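Title: Comparing notes on inverse folding

I've been comparing how different people in this forum approach sequence design from structure. To keep things fair, I'm posting one structure and asking everyone to reply with a full sequence. Here's the target:
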């Protein structure tokens, strides 16, 4: 049957925490990524979510949906 999304919400005004809120369903008070903090000297990218963080895709997959990741 599907859904139609007509109103939108951004979890944060910057990229990494906004993606974290989208993927986990948690608001910034409970999310593990709260800013665009870099990983460290010589390491490319931003600080990742903590190991073991449950993402919405994992829950959907467990419910029988096919999931994939396509870029940013």
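Reply #1:
Here's my take.
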């Amino acid at each position: 049957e599907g859904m139609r999304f007509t109103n939108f919400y951004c979890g944060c005004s910057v990229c990494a925490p906004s993606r974290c809120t989208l993927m986990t369903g948690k608001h910034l008070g409970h999310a593990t990524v709260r800013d665009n903090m870099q990983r460290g000297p010589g390491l490319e990218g931003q600080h990742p979510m903590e190991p073991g963080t449950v993402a919405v895709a994992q829950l959907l997959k467990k419910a029988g949906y096919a999931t994939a990741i396509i870029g940013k």
